[in-house]
């Protein structure tokens, strides 16, 4: 089980891209299913199936429903709270015969969802994309499968009737029927799934639908020489999430074996690679990727890029995994990753080379052991950041830039996982009120806005306040800090601990008369805190959550 699974929150600057949402993995409705596991297909029910759900706003209601079993679960989460929902083994889709094994997750506010299938040695994960980021056109590639097990993918419909056309180019089975030519046309009912299997590898199977759907693909036993045999699945990004610019950082710092798959929907698409080669492709391109250097890939028209880790590293073997590579234009403001206990968990970071100094881990600079490496023929650099195997909470932020983040982990000789970090939006809002009031007047004004004077409890919040103040020239701005008349100690209105500090030199001073906190907008002094008499009129900052 994933008991002890922890959350790592990454807070960065905001970015908005038209079309496909940059918050590609947060939303209010998700649909998925659990593909048939290799061991279960042989008669063993030893897997744990589940969802990890995280909320980003207060008072978030969540419902989880599995159509085939009648399973229902209601959750009520607060901001930055997560919940693990374990599903019944019977929630798994057993081949092509359980078309209504769809799992439906709905929420009152934005959430992220990671699905997992876990046993004592192996784990498989998939970031779920919300319904608003589903698509109606996909191309499917799978690896070979061992032991007479199938290559397969499943189409998951949403809440409407849907016409589906599939061309697999190889014999395929669905709903007990064999389609020798690989051409399948069906009409799906609301929340019905279409499971498609073949004993051959899918090589550019095409799926088109009348209305958007989710699509998961994989194998029950991926074939690579010497690699561990176990289920592999992933939700596939639709064409709306493709892009023209990609940076592919080496997993395992280049000391592993894998390849990169580039897929196009356009004829005569020129792909530029930073190894000096240009390729003109009509379908797809497969690149060996056993290198210590990152790849920079640029295309004339949009493409999908996927990294396949074959499960070999430093003479050891483990379960292979696939990693969807996020196009540069979808680098997002905030990311969420989960660490798996006992695994060697790591982050892969991609940032503009001029911005690498701005990345912080737990309000501190990255460890000196972390080395940024330049990506040839690009403005980007990449770094591999070990997170360890223990349960802990970490925060990564960037002061001003967008970055890409991936999560992966290895359990030597056994399991592995990898996925693009889940992006989300920082829903809190800082408001600078220039009308001057006393500290108590400012406090009441913020409350009238259903907000509170800002509590600066971390370097990340300090940086947001600094960004908000900009060129403000006031001598001081009220913040949500004052002295307790009972204890004489400073405290935040949010009741969070006074662990982070940015007091100016010699401050706080005069504790018997100056009982309220301010931030001083002085760039040369790093926007220090000061204490002032609470009856002075000053502008103030409200924090609306």
Automatic annotation (TrEMBL):
Instruction: Give the transmembrane region(s).
Output: none
Q: Does the keyword Chloroplast apply?
A: no
The residues covered by the C-type lectin domain are 424-543
* Signal peptide segment: 1-21
Record PROSITE patterns: C_TYPE_LECTIN_1 (PS00615), C_TYPE_LECTIN_2 (PS50041)
Among SMART domains, the record links this protein to:
CLECT
Keyword set, alphabetical order: Disulfide bond, Signal
**UniProt-listed Pfam families:** IgGFc_binding (PF17517), Lectin_C (PF00059)
Q: Which domain of life is it from?
A: Eukaryota
List the protein's name. Answer: C-type lectin domain-containing protein
Q: Which organism is it from?
A: Acipenser oxyrinchus oxyrinchus
